[in-house]
Amino acid sequence: MKKYFLTLTILALIPVVLSSCKEDPKSEEPMHDHEFPKVTANKNLNISVLLDLSDRINPKKYPSPAMEFYLRDVGYLKSIAENFEAHIMNKRMIKIDDKIQVFIDPEPSDKTLNKKLGALKISFNRNNVTKEDILMTCKKYDSISTLIYEAAINDDHYVGSDTWRFFKNKVNDYCIEDNHRNILVVLTDGYIYHKDTKIKEGNRTTYLTPQDVKRFGFNKPGWKDKFEQQDFGFIVPNKDLSNLEVLVLGINPDDKNPYEEDIIRAYWSKWLNEMNVKNFEIKQADLPSNMEKVIQGFILKE
């Protein structure tokens, strides 16, 4: 990642932005440097990240020689924070009203962990923005997210991630703000399971595991016809998410089933479409360096 080069570029630009935006009428235009992508910076960003801290991050159960999956998540979080910083750098100070935050569901009982999550809830506006705080965003997301993942792995008590109930009960209140471009990034392997949220209505469920995929008969040709004709999918908990964009990162299908990735995508795509999410992308787990362009393109698009 180009963290240090980007940081130097930001350091050079911030004094210009903070001093000139009050005085120069041309500062109505975004301040662009060759390292900053061209974006519509006047939009206010409200970025939320939902972490799946299930056993998918366990390096012993799911080792990855290229890079452990929890370290990939940390890399994604750093990239998200970097692009959040870049977005603010493209705005006049008077127009800054941008937010970034991280959620875990269910909420951890560990007060120390909750305090770490609180430190990742960052909001900038014209009254509180400083160059020092802007530059601390990525540093916080790097160091604190690493501590969060390491604590979860050391605790070795994985109860799943209640992603379905988060969409049902919390996403409207926590992730959607008026007059903002609302983005939810979900870091997950694509499977959904929590021990306290197991509901089945016909062929619709609140969960999906590799065992379910096999049990539903989706490990052989013809799975797609069965999926569509017999109305498989997630139960729809929320039908009014038209003001939310969703980026799903880290899909990691069971490699014993050649159809697994397509099945996971089918479940998520159907679900997000039925919740009226107008813009979403679903990406398989990859090295953070390869995912940088995807994250940048989603967050900083015009």
Description of the structure:
The protein has 302 residues and is of the alpha/beta class. The protein has a single domain (3-191, 239-299), classed as Rossmann fold (3-Layer(aba) Sandwich), CATH 3.40.50. 41% of the residues lie in helices and 16% in strands. It has ten helices and eleven strands. It has helices at residues 3-20, 69-89, 111-119, 131-155, 163-169, 171-175, 210-215, 223-229, 260-274, 288-299, and strands at 45-51, 97-104, 122-125, 160-161, 181-187, 193-194, 200-201, 204-205, 233-234, 245-251, 279-284. It has a six-stranded mixed beta sheet, sandwiched between helices. Strands 7-8-9 form a three-stranded mixed beta sheet. The chain has a two-stranded antiparallel ribbon with strand order 4-6. α2 packs antiparallel against α4 (131-155), α2 (69-89) packs parallel to α10 and α3 (111-119) packs antiparallel against α4 (131-155). The longest helix is centred in the middle third of the chain and has 25 residues, at 131-155. 37% of the residues are buried. Residues 1-40 have low confidence and may be disordered.
Residue share in β-strands? 15-25%
Instruction: Report strand order across the widest sheet.
Output: 3-2-1-5-10-11
- Topology-level CATH name: Rossmann fold
What shape does the CA trace take?
A: globular
How far apart are the first and last residues' alpha carbons, in Å? Answer: 23 Å
In the CATH scheme, the class would be: Alpha Beta
- Helical fraction equals 40-55%
Task: Count structural domains.
Answer: 1
Number of helices: 10
